[in-house]
Structures are given as C-alpha cells and as structure tokens.
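Lab meeting, item 3. Inverse folding demo.
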C-alpha cells in the first residue's frame, strides 16, 4: 500500500479568488523606485541573471534573491525548473491569482529562468485538475504539472518528481513575472501580490501592493474589524504572529491573516491515531518520538530520522490532540546531536 503523505487542508481560497487582484494605492510618503538602466548587449545567461540582480527580485516562496538562486542552480544543474503556482496554505491564493492574471508573463519568466540555470525542461505546477483546465483555457501552451492539495505540496511534489528521475528546482510565480518585467521592461520588482483573509477583515482579497507598504494599510483596505486581535503573516500553518502593524510588506509576504480570536493551544494526550506519521513527508513517526521523550530516559536510537525534519508542521496540523509535534521533533533532533535537552 502506498501511504499518501501530507495533510488535506480545508481550502478557503474561493473568497479571495472571486475578484480580480485589487491594486492598493501607494502610501503618499513612499518614494517612487528608481528606473533601471537600460540593458546593454544581448540577452544571454549572464544578461538574464544581471537583470534579476538589477531588479532586486526576491523569490516569494523562500525569500531568496532570484539572481543568487539562478547562479546557484547553474552550478547544481537541475534538469527541470518548476514555477510554483499553487498555495499550500488554506487561505492563501496569491500564487494562483498571479498565474490566472499573468499567465503569459509567468511562462515567459519561467523560460528565462530555465535558460539561466540550464534546465532542459520547465513546468508550471498548479494544485488541481480544475485549476489546470482553467489555465489551459487562458493559454493552451502552458505546460502544467499537478502539485495536489495536500500540505506540504511543494515537498510532496519534489519527492514525486525525484522518484521519476527529475532533479527539479523551484521558483515562485511572482518571481517569474518580475523576471519577465525586468528583462522586457527594465522594471525593478517593487510590487507584490498578497492575499488578505481571516474573520478580522470584511473583504478577502488578493491585493497588489508596493513592497514596503505597512501591513495596516493593507488590512484597512480590506475592511479590518476593530475586533481583530491577532494577525499572522505567511502561512496559517507556519506563519508568524505580527505584533506591530507598521511592519512592512516584503516580497515574501504572500498572505496576511487577521483573526478576531487569538488561537488557543489546548492540548490533550496522544490517542495513538498515527495521523502525524501519515502526514510526515520525511518518514518520521512523531508519536513514537513523543513517547520516547516522555519516557524520561530517551534513547536517540529509538528516534530515527528526526534530523531529516524540515519543520513543515504537517504533523502538528494533523494531530487531533493539538500536540506541538514540530517542537517535539526539533527537541529530539537537538538532543540527538548534542546529547542534551535544553
Ligand atoms: S515538521 Fe518534521 S516531523 Fe512534522 S511532518 Fe514536517 S517533517 Fe515530519
Ligand atoms: S496525531 Fe497526535 S494523537 Fe495521533 S498518534 Fe500522532 S501524536 Fe498521537
């Protein structure tokens, strides 16, 4: 039997995908970005990487400079490059919205990135067959691959491609669009698309905002409620709580979630359902590690693979007892390394 790893998340993207991406006016006190110098010479590999560097493009999926990434990939020689046009978080839809509204620019940027890193193949990864049909209607040339709807989709896709002999590299949908704009229009990356969601805002939307805009602007534009008590940026699975709404939007801010109630972390004892093990994309059995740690005399030998944990939190999300298994595995990994519990 093949175990289907990952967690099926309840998807709440429809509300933010119902409307087109809305453009948020640039705050008055923000200055215009300087135009880039016109490109000199032909557009070869060095020219593509130089354009990404000059435009200061950051890949929204991992917050890494695109120019640095392309240089690194050129050395690593992947045989495929994949544009991540799916959103793993239940509320985020900024990658999907970007692909739907900029299909041609995503394809063009992906082709440029593939050329820059010497990958022979390029694919656009979408979550579902329905999404694939929609994109095919927009551009029948789009070469698509399914990432699925289980979290962590990116890791699971990587594993699937690796098993089929593909050594793939990954790039965000918005980074592809920004690369096209840098090469074709000499434009620096100064805007990003952010999903705003949660019961703390009236309108769930994808907003195109100037990078550097304070989060408060974004929330106010979506009808932030006075009852909002908790704001998270990034994924609702692994995102971080925001304490200061003057914090700026960065190129890696793909989602802002506003909530009226602060989530409570109530936990119960393990019931042995094994959902955590089924969720883990790295073959770790979190409940066994938990039991070993709780034994009072943990033996590193009985905690296999903990050092392979990627911190995706799929196990914590899957656990019906609300146990923070990600922290447990992290603790076990450092114990295995140093021999000490801190
Ligand atoms: S956080 Fe670590 S242990 Fe938990 S599912 Fe992800 S990889 Fe597995
Ligand atoms: S998912 Fe939670 S309750 Fe179920 S076996 Fe794992 S730790 Fe125990």
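The presenter then showed the designed sequence:
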């Amino acid at each position: 039997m093949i175990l289907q790893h990952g967690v099926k998340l309840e998807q709440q993207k429809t509300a933010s995908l119902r409307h087109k991406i809305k453009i948020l006016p640039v705050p008055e006190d923000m200055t215009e970005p300087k135009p880039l110098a016109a490109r000199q010479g032909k557009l070869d590999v060095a020219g593509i990487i130089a354009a990404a560097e000059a435009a200061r493009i950051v890949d929204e999926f991992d917050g890494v400079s695109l120019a640095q990434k392309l240089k690194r990939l050129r050395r690593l020689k992947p045989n495929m490059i994949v544009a991540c046009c799916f959103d793993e978080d239940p509320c985020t839809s900024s990658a999907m919205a970007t692909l739907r509204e900029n299909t041609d620019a995503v394809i063009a940027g992906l082709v440029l990135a593939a050329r820059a890193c010497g990958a022979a193949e390029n694919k656009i990864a979408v979550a579902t067959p329905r999404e694939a049909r929609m994109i095919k209607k927009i551009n029948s040339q789009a070469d698509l691959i399914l990432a699925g709807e289980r979290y962590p989709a990116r890791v699971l896709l990587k594993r699937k491609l690796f098993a089929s002999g593909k050594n793939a590299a990954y790039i965000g949908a918005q980074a592809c669009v920004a690369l096209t704009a840098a090469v074709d229009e000499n434009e620096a990356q100064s805007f990003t698309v952010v999903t705003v969601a949660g019961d703390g805002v009236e309108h769930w939307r994808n907003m195109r905002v100037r990078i550097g805009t304070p989060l408060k602007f974004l929330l106010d534009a979506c009808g932030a409620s006075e009852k909002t008590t908790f704001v998270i940026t990034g994924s609702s699975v692994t995102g971080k709580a925001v304490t200061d709404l003057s914090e700026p939007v960065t190129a890696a801010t793909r989602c802002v979630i506003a909530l009226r109630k602060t989530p409570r972390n109530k936990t119960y004892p393990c019931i042995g359902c094994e959902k955590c093990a089924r969720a883990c994309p790295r073959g770790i059995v979190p409940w066994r590690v938990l039991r070993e740690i709780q034994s009072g005399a943990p033996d590193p030998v009985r905690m296999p693979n903990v050092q392979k944990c990627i911190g995706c939190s799929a196990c914590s999300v899957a656990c019906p007892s609300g146990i923070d298994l990600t922290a447990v595995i992290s603790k076990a990994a450092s114990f295995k390394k140093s021999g000490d519990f801190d």
